[in-house]
Specification:
The complex is a heterodimer of chains A (577) and B (684). By secondary structure, chain A is α+β, with helices and mostly antiparallel strands. Chain A is built from 13 helices and 20 strands. Chain A has three domains: 218 residues, 2-Layer Sandwich (Beta-Lactamase), CATH 3.30.450; 168 residues, no CATH class; 43 residues, no CATH class. In chain A, a hairpin with a 2-residue loop joins strand 9 and strand 10.
Amino acid sequence: MKRVDPVTLEVLRHGFIAAANEMRINLMRTSYNPIIYEVLDFSVGVFDARGNMIAQAAGLPIFLGNLGAAIKTVIADVGLAEIKPGDVYMINDTYTTGSHVNDVTVISPVYADGELVGFTASRAHWLDIGGKSPGGSHDCTDIFQEGLRLRSVRLYEEGKVNRSILQIIKDNVRWPEAHMGDLRAQIAAARTGEQRFLELVERFGRETVLEAVAEMLRQGEESVRQAIARMPDGTYLAEGYLDNDGVGTEPLYIKATVTISGDEMTVDLTGSSEQTLGPLNCGLAASVSGCRVALKCATDPLSPVNEGNFAPLKLIVPSNSMFNVKPPGPAFLYGISLIVLIDVVLKALAPALGDAVPAAHYGDMAGFMIYGVDPATGRQFIQQEPEGGGWGAFPDRDGENVMIFIADGDTRNIPAEVIESKFPLRLERYSLREDSGGPGKFRGGLGHYRDYRLLADEGFMTCIMDRSYCRPWGMSGGKEGAHDLVVVNPGTAGEKTVMKYTGYRLKKGDVCSVRTGGGGGYGDPLERDPEMVRMDVIRELVTLESARRHYGVVLDPDTSAIDWQATAELRRRGGAG
Amino acid sequence: MAQCRIGLDTGGTFTDLVLWDEAAGLRLVKVPSTPHRPDDAIVEAYQRLDRDGRDLTFFGHGTTVGLNALIERKGARVGLITTKGFRDVLEIARFNRPDMYNLFYLKPRPLVRRDMRLEVDERVRADGSVARALDPEEFCSAVKTLLDLGAESLAVSFLNAYANPVHEEFAAGLLRREFPGVVFALSTGHAGEWREYERTSTAVLNAYLAPRLRDYVGRLSSRLESAGVLCDLLVMRCDGGLYGARAAVDNPVSMLFSGPAAAVLGAARLGEEAGRRNLITVDIGGTSCDVSLVAGGDIPFVPLKHVDGYPVQQQVVDVHSIGAGGGTIAWVDSAGMLKVGPASAGADPGPACYGHGGTRPTVTDAYLLLGWIDPDRFLGGEFRLYPDLAAQVFEPLASGLGLDLYQAAHGVIRILEAAMAAAVRVVSVDRGHDPRDFSLMAFGGAGPLHAAALARELGAREAIVPQHPAHLAALGILLADVRRTYAQTLVRPWNREALTEVRGLIRRMSREARRALRSQGFSGPSVRLAASIEMRYAGQEHTLQVGVPSSLGEESLDRVARRFRRLHLRQYSFALEDEPCEVVAVRLDASGLVERPTLGRSDEALGDDGSPPAPRTERKVCFVPEDGFRTCSAYDRASLLAGARVQGPAIIEEPASNTVLPPGFTAVVGPGGHLFISTDKNRR
């Protein structure tokens, strides 16, 4: 085969990225649920005929590996010969695609002159997919409680929709109208990608395009191999914990042994907890995704991503592991396990990267939803979104306040004004949570307070908070950040702290205060410049008490002036903590 | 009185002035910009005209003062007052991480530090009703605190103020009465759409830039006055309209993108004159390529734009920018891939061939190597270029890729053009337009070099290189109307009641618009009003803008819904017959029509013999690497008369720009003196 010249290659790369971006914009603009158009909880990509990713639009890193896995499953289930032009497939199977049943992938093949040249795919988070509780729950013990399962379902056959399948979906999900709207948007996006792919083939010829794709993947592999080769060979180990599996009370253990050998990286999850009864399991394809995110972050974070980046990565997961869930195990909360897995792998890699890894971020989905009946319309409503939190401190600066967790990327919060106009809720506070950032020479970023007041007569709250047992860790002597929690009716006699709960009953006027964790600190807090501590106190990021206790800095409560003598004394004694 | 008008645009590298004198015609001036005191270059450009300013009837200008103050973080120290519980909205922003694999990603820093963001206990509900009244004492004490902390200006942004600005207006009254002279901006002052972060950001940017803009406009007005300019100073805004300079400083964000807006406007007007109402505009300068799309003569707008990471809620001419221009740097990444941009050599040191110490290969170096520009005639010969320096920086790039020098130079240009074509896709196909229905108008210093190739790449109908391509923004200002825009959020199912409400709103906005324009001297036929509503399917979030007649009779109910469905089908490839749709917002664009100068060249046509035009000289140029260098004609554009036809391969030169005509293309000097380049459909 002839080699594609570097210029045509770059032109095609732009073409594929533009195709993915166009899919993304169309899906966003025609969707019906805020989780898609406001939060952007979806991912789109363009793939080759074997399901290898050619280009992906900004979206969720967590879908890095498993969009391709979804395509490969459809190929295996249906058989290449049976995949026809105009077909559209749906898949949300946990055991092959790795993620939970709420993540619905829509796939369409791309045919040029009767030959399959590739696929386009979009995966979006559906607010509801049936199952025992609206939006999902923290305590399912098998997949059947989690919702409708669709595996390689042919929704369109050669351009013709199968209405029976639509009917099955409509009858088995809550809020069917909105979800049908989102499904239409997903199909339109897949078609858009198909069109753009075909235009490239038409213009440059099939052979050139396919050869260029192979070359892009080769180059993607090369850049990551070079970055791995720069790390010293060796075996690196790190561990972390999750609070529990949602049903039991015992912490779950995550252990990653990372081996760098030449230009290859192996992640071995042997020793991590076994498959759990509750839904914190992860499908294998999602576990692969998690390791891919860590690899991409550690090696070549800024260039466009493709499948080639991940050829140098090998993952070892025992078959009974929580990271390799088997039927009928539940996995609704796989995202939390994945986030911690990514952080653990990065922590393991820190020495190999010359410690150029920030401290841990809040590292939780902080999932939160409220549902009930809207008195204005008499219809069911559901408000759901992921919550941001603090990120870890860097070796030379403070961590960032309130950003979305590592498994999500270009994902956004829902504006209070949008929430208040759509749902019987009032947002009463959205502000930084003081003292949540881990103390350090450089302080971890802060989490937030986000307080919802229910205006309907009755409603239900589901929340999934974690990381109280293994809080976001510090680095090089930095301290832990605070963890996530929900406080119901704070400051009243009925105040209650909740971590994981499905369907907590609320009455009119109740307040749910979602408090997210902070990032870990970097370096010894007693070495922090007292002037920076003083500014933190003035800006109400750190309390007077914490300044004294964690940083050994004594300030005048009225003027915030530093008492240098008392500070020196306290720091000599190693702080007041 | 004879019309005598000036349009002026301050760009990053040059300040361009165009004088149109009804009696004497056009004059163009180009002087280097003075970024730290932009008024210096403006006064300098004006004085170059060396004429009495008393007969000037119009002085319009576009400015980058606001943009520079923002990029250099030299705005005012701002204090922000918000609703209780929401002072950190500005800092939390939308919490997304666009560089999603970058562990070291930093959010844009908030422009107001936390101790200068104060809350007051007030609340308006989403339906506009008041849940808790604003306490004037509490508000005034917050203002005092901020002033004591050294605030130079204030921003006020209350939750749900888009639904009812009553508290913000009350606060404004308090500020005027109790703190006269304090500069402030309201979140609903000029924006008024929902999403608290974006609206607060807009208010803060206004407060951040207002004092600087005030100083600048005051200084410029008085310097021009002492230089003899007696007419009012007008400012171009990002909505493509002109505003009195003193009124414009109340809303500085509206001036952030005035140059690109003016250029699109100029292109649209010239296109219309030449009978081309469908245009893709491509403006290529030293560091960026700005593209836009004009369909049916309509200037495109977007309601939100990010600048240096900060969102601005503002009706902005929809221009998509990428880092691709003459100064853009070419490089090879670690995996051996050839990359172009987005970094630029800027004006200093500039491309290697400038001889000012540039050490990295740039696009201009590539032009020079391929013979697309003449080293002795760059910028009319004022500026010498050094081809040997260009070759020197291109050698290592080429050998690393296993290419020869000219293949590498040509490769850089092809990649650049691919990026530009992708940018055009963003404004065309992404929005449901087919480039084949459009003429591609290329301008800016480097635009005409790529006009023919881009038109072919996109399959555009033809390429147009307008007259004075390097002065188009300044020309656009000369051609702009005075504008006002009004918008109001109104979420209702689309039915008879909504129709009545919308009609009422449009009437009210129209009355306000007529009153405002009358005060600027426009009435009767010189006032044009265009109403539109934003619609969507009930349950969707994003909207499409549907033009409506201002009378909005009963028959409009069905007609408007049909129009919306057609738009949806075109934009997103599906429409739903039975789904109900709803109205989300009502808009009114009001223009005071300025009498426009005719800029088309009224020179003599070709002689009867139709003989081909005479080239200035011949030189060796490389158009495609396979063909190597071939001898082609170079023409002086000024010597080409109306009707002249130039066959490619050829180069058409003018002082500030060159048009490249590869083999197989033909350029004709058509209506208005513009070059119309036909693409050869048989060559790809």
